[in-house]
Amino acid sequence: MSKTTVLAGQPEWNGQMKTRDARSKRYAFKKYRVLLIMMIPALLYVLIFNYVPIYGLLIAFEDFQVTKGFFGSPWVGFANFQKAFSDPYFYQVLKNTVLISVYRMLWGFPIPILFALLLSEVKNVRFKKAVQTASYLPHFISWIILGGIFMSIFSLEGPINAILGIFGIDPILFMADTKYFRSILVISSILASFGWSSIIYFAAITGVDPHLHEAAVVDGAGRFKRMIYITIPLLMPVISIMLVLSMSGILDAGFDQIFNMYNPQVYDVADIIDTYVYRKGLIDMDYGYATAVGLFKSGIGLILMLTANGLAKKMGGGDYTLW
Amino acid sequence: MVRSGSKIADILLYAFMTAVLVITLYPFWTQVVISLDGGDAAYSSFKLFPSKISFDSYKLAFDFDALWVGYKNTIIRTCLGVVISILATAITAYPLSKKDLPLNKWITRFMLIQFIIGGGLIPNYLLIKYLGLYNTIWALVIPGMLSTFNVLIMRNFFRSLPESLEESAMVDGAGFVRIFIRIILPLSMPIIATEALWVGVGHWNAWFDALIYTNDTNKEMLQLVLRRIIIQNNPTQFSDILTKLQDKNPYSGMQLQATVIMLSILPMLVVYPFMQKYFVKGIMVGAIKG
């Protein structure tokens, strides 16, 4: 008997809590009515401009025809993907994408770290700021202009060929030579981005507790030793997280740069997924196929990002993850 | 011992950093030299200074109408883009700054989609066409107007404002809208200015959306005018000016290109040293928590 009373009492108590909860919820809705109305445009925006295009990815499984539209075009399943995977040129494009971004990472990843380490050793604040500010400049300039400038530097009449000329080397048509084009892409992309990428390392170096350096100085450690034994170990978490994050961008070889610097003569080495999708989709109007290739890329990107986020969580803890 | 070693290291360090400085600025400097040099800087190529200074190409470029149409369009786009983007961000961030707003967590999650996946080129392009935005300025300012990242940063700023201000205004009978306009927005000018700069520079340099969503010469953005001249070498009206200049200088194609580059990056060169710190701040905030 006593047992049943207890059991009978429980739901009653729960029920009371629920009504109170519901009442406070209703109260919150009433209190924040105006603010919830304020949210409506944003929700509509996200729905239309973020979710609808994701739904539109279904075009990848259609033989999309403009006249028939999204709902009228015939469903073809994985035919577009099969077409891509059986096309040798698709593998060429995939290879170019991975190669360019791996080369860029190999050089472009350590350079900002070295730059930050060395520049933070400079004592003259004005000089330091000047170098820093100059190195940020390309970040504020579009790749149309940067591409134009680099193309003029590497052109037949440009300074690079002039320097080679001093050593008796005949002028090289860099921008149309498949042997050099990837290197030019990598070099110019690093020149344009190393300063901006170093910001995060500067911040980490500035954050190092000065007492550590003072103690090391008392122990007779020179600058180089302090860099090796204090600064670099303390940078390691940031470095590893940045590395993991950059892994997830392995299929982003830099559309803005390549689109403005490449030309049909170097498609074999410089055509990447993004430029291929652009030409297939918007020039050849092969919408279904282009969407499929794009979806393949964002699928891989998503998997890499989730893996990277998991790894970052393991290595750096919650503070360093993406969300 | 330690001292002399340190001194040598210092000298090497400064020399190296000077070299870095030169390497970063040299590409831009070449354009200054080529654009000013009335002679053959564009050809003989390894010149650190113009052999003689002539503003011929600058004078001619002033007659290049497309450049100024581009300037005008880009200024309009940037202003409009900044205004609607900041407006949208602020009215979204304010409700979300209330921790006990119903569904707050779900709305935020709903908006985080931007960080995860997007539709990609073709679905976005078709959406713009279906919505009838194609070839209008709205195709350039609406699709990117609400960045979840910017919303979250502004939300955090709103949360950092003292609650007592709002409470006392509420006691005085002010509603949320009045509090938002009269109290929150004026106090949030630092973050509004910062985000306005981010959005503004983004619009100033944007070109791909203009390339695919507009096809009208009257609506051409500065970046696309530049692309036509610098990248595609397809200057229609440009060729008249070029022939005028060619009488004086056989290598004027490059000179005129360099001039156009200079004319278009001048505003950025002037302002970016003063605004870079706001962008650095953005990197730092984003790195700590997105």
TrEMBL record, chain A:
CDD domains: TM_PBP2. The chain crosses the membrane at residues 34-61, 98-119, 140-164, 184-206, 227-251, 287-306. It is found in: Cell membrane. One of its GO terms (cellular component) is plasma membrane. The keyword Glycoprotein does not apply. Its main location: membrane. It comes from Paenibacillus mangrovi. PROSITE patterns: ABC_TM1. It holds the Pfam family BPD_transp_1. This is ABC transporter permease subunit. GO terms for biological process: transmembrane transport. It is a multi-pass membrane protein. The keyword Transmembrane applies. InterPro entries: MetI-like, MetI-like_sf, UgpAE/MalFG_permease. PANTHER family: BLL4140 PROTEIN (PTHR43227:SF11).
TrEMBL record, chain B:
The keyword Membrane applies. It comes from Paenibacillus mangrovi. Belongs to the binding-protein-dependent transport system permease family. It comes from the Bacteria. The chain crosses the membrane at residues 12-29, 75-94, 106-125, 137-158, 179-201, 254-274. GO terms for cellular component: plasma membrane. Keywords: Cell membrane, Membrane, Transmembrane, Transmembrane helix, Transport. Residues 71-272 form the ABC transmembrane type-1 domain. GO terms for biological process: transmembrane transport. This is Carbohydrate ABC transporter permease. CDD domains: TM_PBP2. Its main location: membrane. It is found in: Cell membrane. SUPFAM superfamilies: MetI-like. The keyword Transmembrane helix applies. It is a multi-pass membrane protein.
